[in-house]
Specification:
The complex is a heterodimer of chains A (633) and B (387).
Chain A (H helix, E strand, L loop, with lengths): L1 H42 L1 H12 E6 L6 E2 L5 E14 L6 H9 L6 H13 L5 E5 L4 H9 L7 E10 L7 H4 L2 E2 L3 H6 L4 H4 L6 E2 L2 H5 L1 H5 L3 E7 L5 E8 L7 E3 L3 H11 L4 E7 L5 E7 L4 H6 L3 H9 L8 H4 L9 H10 L8 E3 L2 E4 L2 E4 L7 E3 L1 H6 L3 H11 L1 H10 L21 H7 L6 H8 L9 H12 L10 E4 L2 E2 L12 H16 L18 E7 L6 H6 L14 E8 L6 E7 L5 H18 L25
Parallel strand pairs in A: 2-10
Antiparallel strand pairs in A: 1-8, 2-3, 3-4, 3-5, 6-7, 8-9, 10-17, 11-12, 11-21, 13-16, 14-15, 17-18, 19-20, 20-21
Helix pairs in contact in A: 3-4, 11-24, 15-17, 15-18, 15-22, 17-20
Chain B lengths: L13 H7 L3 H20 L8 H20 L2 H25 L1 E3 L2 E6 L4 E2 L1 H19 L12 H15 L4 H18 L3 H21 L9 H11 L9 H12 L12 H4 L11 H33 L4 H25 L17 H19 L12
Antiparallel strand pairs in B: 1-2, 2-3
Helix pairs in contact in B: 2-3, 2-12, 3-14, 4-5, 4-6, 5-6, 5-7, 5-13, 5-14, 6-7, 7-13, 10-12, 12-13, 13-14
Classes of the chains: A alpha+beta (633), B mainly alpha (387).
Chain lengths: 633, 387
Amino acid sequence: MIDRRKIQASTNSRFTRRSLVLFGSQLSLAGILGSRMYQLQVVESGHYTERAERSRIRPRLIAPVRGEIYSRDGTALAENRQNYRVVMVREQTDDIRLSLQKLSALIELTSERQEELYETIRKSSPFAHVLVAENLTWDEFADINANAPALHGISPEIGLTRHYPKTDITAHIVGYVGAPDNEDIKRAGTAKGLLKLPGMRIGKNGIERIAEDSLRGTAGLRRVERNVHGRTIRELFRQDGIQGERLDLTIDLDLQKYAIERLGDESGAVIVMDINDGDVLALASTPGYDPNDFVLGLSQQQWNALRGNEKNPLMNKAVAGAYPPGSTFKMMTLLAALENGINPTDSYYCNGALWFGNRHFNCWKRGGHGFVDAITSIKRSCDVYFYEIAQQVGISKIAELSRRFGLGVEPEIELPRVKSGVMPDRGWKEAVLGEPWYSGETLNAGIGQGYTTATPLQLAIMTARLANGGYNVKPRLIRGRNGQAIKPEPLRPLGVDAKNIAIVRKAMSSVTNELGGTAYKSRITATGKEMSGKTGTAQVRRISVAERQTGVIKNEDLPWRLRDHALFVAFAPTDKPRYAIAVVVEHGGGGSTVAAPIARDVLLHAQYKGKPPPDSVPKEADPIFGQDPLGPV
Amino acid sequence: MSISILNGPGHLSIGTKLLRLNWVLPVFLAIVSGVGFAMLYSVAGGDFDPWARAQIIRFTVGFLGMFIVAMIDIRIWYKAAWPFYLFAFSLLLAVEFIGISGKGAVRWIDLKFIRLQPSELMKIALVVVLARYYHDIRPDRVKSIFLLIPPLIIIALPAALVLNQPDLGTTVLLVSGGIAIMFMAGVSLWFFFLLGAGTGGLIYAIFGSCGQDWQILKNYQCRRITTFLDPASDPQGAGYHITQSKIAFGSGGYNGMGFTEGPQSRLDFLPEKHTDFIFTTLGEEFGLIGALALLGLYMAILFIGMLTTLRIKHTFGRLIGTGVCFTFFCYFAINMAMVMGLAPVVGVPLPLVSYGGTSMLVILFAFGLLLSAQVHARVLFKKREDA
């Protein structure tokens, strides 16, 4: 028993001892655990907190509402319209196909489109809102709302889309928006995230493109908390975006409409400009297109039709069509001559051609004009007179003066893809063609042929600068931002003698207002509303030698695309000029017969702010004097 | 013996037993379980369903069961030791054939009303049977080398089955629990030195075998070890658990985000947030203070358990007490270490807090045994020599 007790005692003390050892080691392990807690939650806490925030809080941009564009009289040209659309959220339906099928009973949804959507939805995140259809009518939208409980996963939404109420009338001015492409996103810099938002549109053409920065507005921001699957749980912060600027254009919608109407089926351009502040009241280019088609997405068929049209509806001919100015250039040659000491009363004899170098330079009038002075040269558009003075003044001085009037210089206007035309001289030819200048080319340049090209906008600028007495008026399309009027730039004189400009203006008046003027038929008879102008015809094809012998083929006998361009520039009223106009009708024939009447009608419309009284134009029966059937070249 | 009045079964009335019962321990167990309910309520997004309510019911059942177990004479548990072990062992065998797969391992038997995890049961059965084994052998023969062999077999057989499931965590728990009892029973320290060296070598071999022809572990186990050593090696895969757990736990700071406010848990960044990783949520919502408090509660239970055990006069009770305490310690220490990136993710729940029926019931049952040993601290066993 004693032995057993001893053993018992030693067993007891060993148990206690080992209990202590065990508990001691457990305590130290607990100490390690405790210090690990301290390490994670105190020492490294900041690091983990930051990582936690980063994984759960996501900034999300809110697309700003795009600024709207209005005409001069406050009519919306580009507005944001409610876009009734339906989206599908995969998570909310068990059967995507069934839901789509049910939806197809309410709106048009072809089975191919359903299949396409099924694939898209299947592949996207379960919480993503996938666009099923948009721009629905109110009735369709109401139908979907009424049936919403049966349409699992389908939710109706109201968004905004850009709408152009005036469609093709202002298409070339306002332009259109479209989804940003990769290039746009690359260029965007800090706005990259905004451009990547679903449904985001940016300006692709016209004012929409040029004024993108002011129209776009400032993106809003919201911070959302999302879970590991990417589903947004709640919004932590929200700051709405700032709507883009409202732009007020200089365009007089009524005049614009009229100009488009007046051009009719022709392919051409009309620009009406205020000669003092540069406000572009009308900038028409026909044919146009419906910019809304671009917003909704153009079908291949529509695209092909637009691209295949020989009248090129996508091109804004007013700023991007560069045409030989023809006789409308003669004011520049004359002014350069007057500036350089040619006496306006000096006459030259026109016998129908000028022998220069080793060839004949023909006047458009084969019989010749006889003695021609400065005024008559413009009035009757005598080519020989201009050959003579161009030769005397030289190309450099003509080109220098023309540039001051905006030719060969890219005009500053709030439109994309603006062409600068060509005002050739020795340097230009050397640089572009690598060839020396031949004196004969000066003669051609003197009548606006040869290398010289100008856009209708440039011709309007030139005319405006002549009409305002030689000031550097610049065209502009935007006259106000957010209701705040923008002051036009103060005018600077171009450094041309007012006397000489007066002579040119007098000559231009004789074109329309004097018997024998090339556009006398298209004169305005209303007192105080008279117009002064200049006709021009630009050759599209070269006239062959054989043709010169047998007589030039009449324009009407040629295929459309080979006919001459008809040009006319003018200002009105003659005495106290206010408006300048340039009209180009592609392949229209003669400037006096096709372009001048359009210019007259548009200028009348501008001056009367609407339909003019019937006696403001000559009667139909008015005899035609001094008119050559071919028209001036 | 001085307290011979207690000789033989049924000598104490239930009332006496209830008076004797160490009430401090159940109170602490209830407190910790209460923490568990709160956390399950929180991870459900502030809802008793789906987890907290079920856990409360299980706890209630288990808690009452614990008292019933405590009232039963320790000698009856002594007699039940071998049948209990064999029962648990046969269930383990049964898992091999009719078990339910889950997460790449076969661990459960579906008994319709409960999904039983026999390996959990085996942890207690092993404690009981080893306690009986060492109770039965004469104290002076404890250090005999020959007598080391049976307990090693008793440990090795279920350990092999569990490892085969495969369930590395439970295997480690089983083996270390068994070894702890052997240590407390008084087995020569040399054995433990040798065992330590041998285990070290084995672990080295196991780790070294990963990726070799003679790989011992399953691929996912190797991966867990690799990712434990370098969680960044696989941030979206196996390392994801550890990384996300550390982020959530670390972002708790001193005071935590507040009850039910832990964003990482609420937003599902945390995997297994209601089971093995519930401690992370606690750390995120209650910060260092909360985490240390829970650790303190666990250590208090451990300390009370050890103190209680020291007062038990018979070897069987003492070893049961030690085994229960040690197993309990292993549970929370391994779980916390794993969640904080100190140990590989081995799938050990946080005792009384993690959502799970079997582990809750088994732990309460184990403490019931400890309490039974405490209540019957001075009963006399019929010694074999006396028989």
